What we know:
Number of strands: 8
Distance between the termini: 29 Å
Strand order of the largest sheet: 6-4-3-2-7-8
Oligomer: single chain
Structural class: alpha+beta
Helix content: 25-40%
Amino acid sequence: MVNIRSIVLPALVLLVASPAASEGLEPEEGVFAGYGAPTPYELLVRQALLGDDRYRLCQMVYLPSFHQESAVYIAHQEDKAFVVVSRTMKKQLWSQMLGEMEKASPTKNSISLNSIYQSAALQKIRAAVAVKTAALDADAATIVTEACRDVLLSVSYPKEATAGLDGTIYHAGHWIPGAFLSGKTWSPTKGTVAADFVAMEMTLQAYADAATESRAAVRRDLLDKAKALEARMNAGHTALPTERATPGR
């Protein structure tokens, strides 16, 4: 049993550590890569946010501490248009689940996080999702997806633990023929490849969420970020001295 007031991050991680000081993303070992035994919460998040699109490009699932879970990806099939898909929970699933678990707990303010209790709580919740889509031209999609591919081909384990009790955990993925690349990061340090990648993904989501008349400007911003990230990857992703991350404790 754990105290409900100590649970803020929707990743079931109870280790206090510094934000990601590693340069790029870490390997993904959870449900968002298709590996490992998912918790009922993770499984429902995956089902709600990733839908039935099989070939997802530039996928990012956001699990924030205090806001709704969301995801963005580019859906594409051969001979069809590229479509940016943004999916956001209408209410944060994690906090709803904890609320239901607290109601059912015989011990005030304490709950068990095991799968049985998660499943029982989630059965009482409607995982409603808001979906927005926007077509993306092939030239722009190619630039963005190549940056995603190269970042996710460079994942590596950090020297220091990077999980924590605040911020946002980012689960990235990208389909290539024969494989699904994946990686993750937690509250990445400014100036790292991970931070630049997250910024590009957030702009990709903003593109889908934007009003039609605003998309041209967001597209330019998206391409600027993608080109800068790709140039950095081609150069060995070395940060400038003023950008280099300060090592965490």
